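Case study B.
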Amino acid sequence: MPQLPPAGGDDLGAPDELIPFQDEGDEQDKGAGRGSAHGDLDELKSSLVHESENRRASASGSDSEAERPPPPQPRESFQKPRDYLAEVVRRQQDGGFFKGPPYPGYPFLMIPELGSTYLPNGALSPGGARTYLQMKWPLLDVPAGATLKDSRSPSPAHLSNKVPVVQHAHHMHPLTPLITYSSDHFSPGSPPSHLSPEIDPKTGIPRPPHPSELSPYYPLSPGAVGQIPHALGWLVPHLMSSRFSPHMVSPAAHGLHPSGIPHPTIVSPIVKQEPTQASMSPGGNSKSPGSVKKEEEKKPHIKKPLNAFMLYMKEMRAKVVAECTLKESAAINQILGRRWHSLSREEQAKYYELARKERQLHSQLYPTWSARDNYGKKKKRKREKQPQQQIQDTESSLASKSKKPYVQYLPIEKPCDSPASSHGSMLDSPATPSTALASPAAPAATHSEQAQPLSLTTKPEARAQLSLHSAAFLSSKAASSSSSLSSPSPLLSRPIPFATMTHTALLTSPPSFPAAIPSPQAALAVLQAQPLSLVTKPAD
DNA sequence: CTTCCTTTGAAGACC
DNA sequence: GGTCTTCAAAGGAAG
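Model:
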């Protein structure tokens, strides 16, 4: 079933006409909420109130994004010395624990995995395959020196063997940020699925991704090499020589761009890799069933492109980990799931758009690839039932079905959870596409602006039912708060901007936090977790 | 060492 | 066409 698209969907017009990526909301949300939220708590609270009021007014006063009053000073975010200092102070208070973004004074760069995925030179680290968003915001404000890192640093690939097989070598070309996801081509509001293939607004015909839209993270398949425009064209000769898996080409042969700059798609062969086709069956013809099977197994594993939430997770995980004492991914993911719902539609739209581009690129690079190819590749997961099914019989059998008892990583007063989630998003956080609409993420959104193609989400009763189920599910499963159960409809009908609800809840129930928050940093993290732009708007 | 957990979204399978 | 299943990432926990 098609997933709920992000904000704006059908009303946003042609992609190229869309608001550049660094629209005011993005900029402020990222910068403000995460930058200055580090500062004074009281100030933040007042800012929260202020923001809530702003959002409330905005939600009631306009029907479209375009009608929303433009921010007085869009790019202010972290350019405020106060904010920067607050960040500095906060980091000092963190005593080194804080593993913030790598760029001092630019905490919303969201390059959380430079330590795990990418090394400072932008190269891929063993921890992950892709970091897609690292250049989005840096492109906007960050000094060039901070963005363009030393490209001659050694690739991290050799540091570990934990690298995805094919989509592995996403070393970032230092210049890639300048040609990838540029604001000219990034459309924050594009729906996630129904725009693919992208329609050229001018010609009305599907158009291939512009080079600037192509993520540099995918190695090229032989069939797609020729299709890749010039942005990746320099790789073609090398890739052609490598049959399929560009990462298997000797780094000596292709490790460097003609300019001498390592490229993301090139990884050291030392890295654990699946055998290439070239290396696996020289003979090729006479294959016993066993060898066929063998070859089948040796086929390069092309992973699915990441969806919007996965992209979001990749970006935000490190931040959450830094904010929380939690380390288990399951717990982190719960937090991220909640935060995802608390994102504004604009913010979510960015990820939907990125995901769309990822899929687009993926299909270009691997024209013959199908998600089916990966079916059964993983060990069968033990999950017998989907959440919606579980909802129906959670109480009776949930615990018994799981190998491991259900772990409520995020109790109601979970230290690192965002208040938004615990008070609202929890209601509809279970994995159902409808949640995006039901999500409180877009307080200012209205039906006209946020027309969602997904029919499911347009049915109020369906949403209510789902939410009720979700609440029940959560309730039985996670001892969720009963208040969530009791009032799904207000949330669904949005009489109150969620931000208001959330922030009100936050501000009116601070006593619930200290008991669960282990440290002032965690307390700040709770506030910081708000994806809204709270404090960068100039005080009135 | 392998699988599970946990999240959302996309896509394929299935009815 | 609707529903269900699988897989994407992540890394600690558990088997």
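Residues 308-365 of chain A form one domain. The remaining cases will be described in the next quarterly update.
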